[in-house]
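Q: what sequence does this backbone want?
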């Protein structure tokens, strides 16, 4: 399905106009005497945590380091040229598989460490890299702990730390802040309108399905598929918004999540659709193991592996990478109501958000285990 971009363009223009009209009044806007002075060396901004931070003026800001994958994704979508390095727990920030789906300008960036995945920042590398701003991201809404950690890191390195939110509903606020800080207001407005359009399309479909009639979904994590996330987990937000009925009646675990469950529990839940965590070995096991074969999702061929290249479509990291997951889950659950060409939509998304043109053949290969046969 080819997307009609006219509503998105009009929405982007409206968002940009509103940003310009409220430049002096928004909480994430630049403030202070130097904010309107193009020759100012610094400006004061208010980040998503409500912290007032002095950063280089947009025309002076060239080297930003995201401290984790959630802030990496947000920064990459709006200004890959401002990334001075990229965070990861591995020596190389991006795998060869990821590079195919990312702009060449970031392929060989150095790695200064990460706060994601129990990693640590390489403080000496950050100092040596002459980083001007550290961009910190959160798992969900910004908490007091997030604010305290940002304050401590800023004091330790004497480098401004700007917080953005990992909550999916805060994407507009995040893009507004990044647009102003980086001098990319027009791009921020375009991305905000694009994501808002996806959200509205998908939630409109989900709203048509009474809660009791929603498709029963199980999210299979771990090597054997016997770990999951409950509906109230932040890692279930895409499923919830797309109209799934996440049937995992378990407690949510902090940190990495992945609450262990038994085969008996999954059999009793008998999901209609199973989404398998990207990068997990569970997909093949679920499709071929005799225990799993008794479940309706397996019987009816509705087991799908979550795409995770260059970033997960619906889970970790908690950032704007998850908007493509809204399209995908809605399409898998309610194809009659959400009748799209998923390959075409994914190509469009990768062009807008990831700055790459992916051929139809390559996208089909990426999604070979993620779509109905």
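A:
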């Amino acid at each position: 399905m080819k997307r009609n971009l006219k509503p998105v363009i009009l929405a982007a223009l409206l968002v940009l106009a509103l940003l310009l009209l409220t430049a002096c009044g928004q909480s994430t806007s630049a403030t202070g005497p130097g904010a309107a002075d193009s020759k100012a060396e610094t400006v004061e901004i208010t980040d998503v945590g409500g912290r007032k931070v002095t950063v280089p003026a947009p025309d002076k800001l060239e080297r930003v380091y995201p401290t984790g994958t959630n802030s990496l994704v947000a920064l990459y979508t709006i200004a890959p040229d401002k990334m001075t390095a990229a965070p990861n727990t591995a020596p190389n920030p991006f795998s060869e598989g990821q590079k195919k789906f990312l702009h060449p300008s970031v392929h060989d960036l150095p790695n200064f460490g990460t706060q994601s995945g129990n990693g640590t920042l390489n403080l000496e590398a950050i100092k040596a890299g002459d980083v001007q701003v550290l961009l910190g991201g959160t798992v969900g809404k910004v908490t007091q702990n997030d604010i305290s950690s940002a304050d401590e890191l800023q004091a330790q390195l004497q480098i401004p730390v700007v917080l953005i939110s990992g909550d999916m509903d805060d994407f507009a606020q995040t893009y507004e802040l990044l647009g102003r800080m980086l001098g990319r207001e027009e791009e921020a407005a375009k991305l905000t309108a694009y994501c808002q359009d996806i959200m509205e399309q998908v939630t409109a479909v989900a709203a048509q399905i009474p809660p009791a009639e929603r498709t029963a979904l199980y999210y299979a994590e771990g090597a054997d598929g016997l770990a999951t996330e409950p509906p109230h987990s932040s890692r279930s937000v895409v499923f919830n918004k797309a109209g799934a009925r996440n049937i995992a009646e378990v407690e949510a675990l902090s940190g990495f999540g992945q609450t262990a469950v038994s085969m008996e529990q999954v059999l009793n839940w008998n999901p209609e659709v199973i989404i398998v965590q990207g990068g997990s070995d569970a997909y093949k096991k679920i499709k071929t193991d005799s225990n799993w074969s008794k479940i309706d999702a397996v019987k009816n061929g509705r087991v799908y592996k979550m795409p995770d290249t260059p970033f997960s479509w619906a889970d970790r990291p908690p950032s704007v990478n998850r908007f493509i997951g809204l399209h995908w889950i809605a399409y898998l659950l309610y194809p009659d109501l959400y009748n799209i060409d998923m390959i075409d939509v994914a190509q469009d998304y990768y062009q807008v958000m990831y700055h790459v043109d992916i051929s139809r053949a390559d996208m089909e290969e990426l999604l070979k285990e993620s779509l109905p046969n």
